[in-house]
């Protein structure tokens, strides 16, 4: 592997969990219920990736594939200010694309990979990696085809991560009971099954705590202990 960089998340607690930050040349999967902070962490990473190395950044650009329409450029401004960066410059360095079908999502990846060979990118966000597959393959009979297409997409993500020394951050929502907040599906088995679980280098489970508190737990990481820590979602991004 190329020299791995660990990109800060804005939270010391998360840094401890991750051995410093989100790793380049690797895929980090964040899974958890709705509103657990997966997209908020993506927003903070959009900024921290652009920080210089001496501020535990990646000194690179960001590619963002948004399949749910939840990216908010306005949220980037206070986060950039917190880190002492020029918000307009930070926004300019985020290459944003909205994905509408799984095929479109795959083609966006190919286009971004072409860009990455010319400019230094350090982060690729796919939020969410699976939502469009759920929409485009609904029937039971289509499961095998869905898993095959998903595997193809994930292998492309792995290739991009390694070829360009980019951190891939992908999210995966777990369905929770709208009434009680109880998981219908096993939280250890989010949508996508083994195909998705095996593609990720590091898997993080997010859940809600009190108020703006969120809990992040490490799953299946080859070189990290299975620990959990509390972080906060603030107007200026992820923090302790
Ligand atoms: P998901 O895991 O579904 O992607 P999000 O990352 O979108 O969840 O987190 C949504 C939560 O983030 C909201 O419930 C809210 O508590 C918090 N949040 C969003 N914007 C702000 C903000 N500007 N300041 C503080 N908290 C915020
Ligand atoms: Mg989200």
TrEMBL record:
Alphabetized GO MF terms: ATP binding; ATP-dependent DNA damage sensor activity; DNA strand exchange activity; double-stranded DNA binding; single-stranded DNA binding
Describe the family membership recorded for this protein in Swiss-Prot or TrEMBL: Belongs to the RecA family. DMC1 subfamily.
In this protein, which residues make up the domain named RecA family profile? 3-174, 180-240
Naming one, the record's GO cellular component terms include: condensed nuclear chromosome
Query: Does the record bear Nucleus in its keywords?
Result: yes
GO terms in the biological process aspect are: DNA recombinase assembly; DNA strand invasion; homologous chromosome pairing at meiosis; mitotic recombination; reciprocal meiotic recombination
The alphabetical list of record keywords is: ATP-binding, Cell cycle, DNA-binding, Meiosis, Nucleotide-binding, Nucleus
* TM ranges: none
Q: What is this protein called?
A: Meiotic recombination protein DMC1 homolog
The lineage's top-level taxon is Eukaryota
| Keyword Nucleus in record | yes
- Which residues belong to the signal peptide in this entry? none
UniProt subcellular location: Nucleus
